[in-house]
Task: structure prediction
Amino acid sequence: MTEVPAVRVAALSYFFPAHNEEANLRGLVGEALATLPALADDFEVVIVDDGSRDATPRIADELAAADARVRAVHHPRNLG
Result:
């Protein structure tokens, strides 16, 4: 089988909803930050906290404060 080379793009926004994901959030963002440089010249990771009741909002804010390529958006209540 022939491997197809990855296609790079100039810019990419990677976002995902996070509802009560305190156990998974750091790993997911870490994996995204390790992978995205191979796919895009410029990128951002957007965490959309969907009204979590655990530590997800705090962790999202910590990740955003630690890396300018990460942003946290918060919904005050779960919007589904």
